[in-house]
Write the structure tokens for this entry.
Amino acid sequence: MSDSPKLCDVLLAKRFEHKHTQEQAAELLDISTRYYQDLEHGRSLPGFKSVCKLAKVYGIDFAQFAEDEKNII
């Protein structure tokens, strides 16, 4: 088990860092607000398209999550 952060925690931190609402974040990622909320609360994991958009919009390095089997995308 690694000490890497969970995806939902990183999403929340990045959204706050960019001063986005959940609605704004969802719009930037071209996903529904409900789906974004599910990602941020850890109820869903993003698909490939969403991973690519999250990496581009928020500069998230998804390799860090592969270290922890609970966070594999």
